[in-house]
Amino acid sequence: MSTVTLLGFPRIGRRRELKKALEAYWRGESDAAALAETARTLRHRHWTLARDAGADVVPVNDFSLYDHVLDTAVLFDAVPERYRALGDPLAIYFAMARGHARDGHDLPALEMTKWFDTNYHYLVPELHAGQRFRLAGDAPLAQLREARAAGHAARPVLLGPVSFLLLSKTVDGSAPLDLLDALVPAYRALLDGLHAEGAEWVQIDEPCLVLDLDPAARAACARAYAALAGTGPRLLLATYFGALGDNLDLAARLPVAGLHVDLVRAPGQLDAVLNALPPSATLSLGVVDGRNVWAADPDRALPLVERARARLGDDRLWIAPSCSLLHVPIDLDEETRLDPELKGWLAFARQKIAECRCLADAVAGDLGARAALDHRRALVAQRRSAARVLRPEARERVAALDAASTWRSADLDTRRRLQAERFGLPLLPTTTIGSFPQTPALRAARAAHRAGRLDDAGYAGVLRDEIAHAIRVQEALGLDVLVHGEAERNDMVEYFGEQLDGFAFTRQGWVQSYGSRCVKPPILFGDVARPAPMTVAWSRHAQSLTARPVKGMLTGPVTVLQWSFVRDDLPREAVCRQLALALRDEVGDLEAAGIGIVQIDEPALREGLPLRRADWPAYLDWAVACFRIAAGGAAPATQIHTHMCYAEFNDIIEAVAALDADVISIETSRSRMQLLDAFVRFRYPAGIGPGVYDIHSPRVPDAAEMQALLERALEVLDPAQVWVNPDCGLKTRGWPEVEAALAHMVAAARTLRAALVAA
After folding, report:
1. Can 3-385 and 392-438+477-758 be said to share one CATH topology?
2. Vertex 14, ends 9 and 17: CA angle to 5°?
């Protein structure tokens, strides 16, 4: 019978136990031993869950306290010198992840960006020419010993050397791949150690093989694996998130014993892979979707398994999810209140492993497994025709869209003049991105409201008080454009999904975004419509409390799409246009309520890019069009903002400009304004707010540091177009640090404003 396995399992725990343990440790309420014990407990629990669901072999070293790319950097001693003074390894690790500002140290965190086209954020390793690497830890070996002692057949997982370097950045402009020959011996030492521990297989993830690779990267792959050949364990080269395409011949020539391919994103590659696979190599088929929550369609998955088995037999065939299950919740059985019909259409991590088991058993002739697949076929057919999925009026609105729907009624110069007359803002206007701290008291009130212990009127009173507090603080700090603080919102996507038709929600469907930050993506299962205004009442209330302009805050259509578990029975472009129309209606209602500035956040625009450049234009065409549909009905004097963060925008700057927003705010503080390099070659026409405060770190930068960042921005940008703001929303921070940081930000802006006016 074919082997059933998986590439990785979610880390956070069914009830976010890792999040709670991390935050207790950071607050000083628990020690390193307690954190380590929570991590150990979760690893054992997850191995058992995977085995009991049907996995023959479980992964180890897929667990992380914060991020697996950061773990790899630390494992091979790629620790920037500035952090080493902390001494304690755990302090160094978390300083690299979150920054450190105490005990006489002031250390910003490493840069953070998106893991390929997912909403998972990884820490970007910081390297330099002449970097030395060494095996500086034993986590993969220790976890292998731990799993085997518990009775599990286990396979260590490593991020491959080429992908690690390509995902890194150098501080001196040198080429990261030039460090390959220095890095590979450390990998060899680790593989030798794993072999000594009895590892039969080691999974080495090289997701870079689904990207466009230049000759240097291809040569690096060949050189790296030639050097790693013969180290003892058999190597499984794991690729995912797309097709190997023109890298297939390279992957098939590498001296590895097995290859994993993603047949969910790229089912059409199977025959080419089978033809290229060396005669003795094992093939791991990623036939169950590791990125989404929909149960597998047997009519898509089973033929792939049958074709591969006919060529390879059982001994050389593994069946697995398409990628690590990091991107989906742990267990559907936790959802005791989910609608039974909808629940029947879904599969979370544990169920996806069981689906792989069922496919393996079915092709081996198990009648029970065959019957289970027949039942699943019936559910798939039911979902396609369910009344809750289909909404003709939503599809008719999309069909009626024309080119005029994507254009504002006036050009940027006209809008700029009208908006300047309307708002009278100073040079370098200050604002924030949208959210303010979600305090324990606010979260407790939300929980009480959901549990029925606090009635609607009582909860609304709490929210009005929070909004009033946010307005008072902003006025006292001297911000020029205010926000209402989003006290009513649990999450920037879930909040909107709760008010739109076509969405469903889980209670324990958490996935990791970064570190201890978890999100609960809504399930977008049907056609989208907006029954009523979603944000107007709170924005109107906030504006009534101040004479300064208050921004209306919306999450853009592409971001709602990207950060939901999206239906797979309709093209994503069509779903996004439905979302855009709902948001267009909301913009109109905000205008009618007297809100003159509306921010439509699109942090996921870059994240949604296809991994191959040849596919970019088609995506950008519809993604940009969807933003413009959402904003296109706004009057010329209404100022449209957007926000983007934690992704490299330099290579799509023309598409960002094509959004035709009046102002864009972006994350730049962790990269020390390096993201502004694009503005050297491309003259961005509208307003831009380069973030000067890293909100993902508890560290509070002083005014001089923020002023220095702004001065760098002004070397590239016209002062008339520059706004001053943090990198992102302030929801996860506490009020004392927020007030201190924003006071410094306003002071920096005022100092530079005075200097510019005087000049």
Report:
1. yes
2. 100
Q: Is 330 annotated as a binding residue?
A: no
Q: What's the CA gap between 489 and 493, in Å, rounded?
A: 9
For 3-385, CATH number out of 3.30.110.10, 3.90.550.10, 3.30.70.600, 3.20.20.210 equals 3.20.20.210
Which residues contact residue 279 at a Cβ distance below 8 angstroms, ignoring those fewer than 6 apart? Answer: none
Give the pLDDT mean for 327-335.
97
Q: Give how far Cα 232 sits from Cα of 112, 203, 253, 280, 728, Å.
A: 35, 13, 19, 17, 47
Q: Would you say 572 is a known binding-site residue?
A: no
| Catalytic (active site) residue 46 | no
| DSSP H or E run through 639 | strand 639-644
CB 25 within 8 A of CB 66: no
Q: 434 labelled as ligand-binding?
A: yes
Give the fold, CATH level 3, of 392-438+477-758.
TIM Barrel (3.20.20)
Please give the mean pLDDT across all residues of the chain. 95
Tell me whether residue 583 is annotated as binding.
Answer: no
Please indicate, yes or no, whether the overall pTM of this predicted structure exceeds 0.85: yes
Distance CA 355, CA 296 (A): 7
Q: Are the C-beta atoms of residues 521 and 509 closer than 8 Å to each other?
A: yes
Q: Is 12 annotated as a binding residue?
A: no
Q: Which of 46, 121, 541, 696 is catalytic?
A: 696
Residues pairing with 123 in the sheet: 112
Contact 323, 240 (CB under 8 A): yes
The percentage of residues in the chain with a pLDDT greater than 90, rounded to a whole number, is 88
Determine the pLDDT at residue 671. 65
